[in-house]
Description:
Blueprint: E1 3-13, E2 18-27, H1 31-34, E3 37-43, E4 50-56, E5 58-64, H2 67-72, E6 75-80, E7 84-88, E8 93-96, E9 104-108, E10 116-118, E11 125-129, E12 140-146, H3 151-154
Parallel strand pairs: 5-12
Antiparallel strand pairs: 1-2, 3-4, 4-7, 5-6, 6-11, 8-9, 9-10, 10-11
Protein name: CENP-V/GFA domain-containing protein
Pfam families: GFA
GO molecular function: carbon-sulfur lyase activity; metal ion binding
Amino acid sequence: MIASCFFWVLIETDSLHVHIARSNSRMSGQVEEINPLVRHQGGCHCGTVKFEVWAPARLHVYNCNCSICVKKQNRHFIVPGSKFRLLQGEDSLTTYTFNTHTAKHMFCKTCGVQSFYVPRSNPDGYGVAIHCLDPGTVECYDIEEFDGDNWETHIVKTDIKQRSEDKK
């Protein structure tokens, strides 16, 4: 497996636009062997909800185009339930469900930020919003486009369901 890490670089800015470019660096080898788990922490905007998650420093992020992910710009990575721990704010979370009601979209009642959720593709795990992690532990990340708009046909074409399995 080859993993790509993307680094966003500011090229130029003016009063109305920011121009960015994506730089791609490749690493070879088995990601699991060279990418051990590290402790990431994060939370919502107001600080009421805080969590920790054990995941690689080089993350595999999904950019889903389903209706809700597009609306909230939900770029997330998947972890097994055993690698996620809510540190504070359980009483400050509220949950939104729709369609099959399998996915649990939890967000802070105070600031409205969704830091994590239980995805339909991985009801035994968590989808963690990369932008809600505290700085300092993510080395880089690659982005995989996920066709959530055509969920039923696309889910069988990816390895997303394996992302919430505990690696022994």
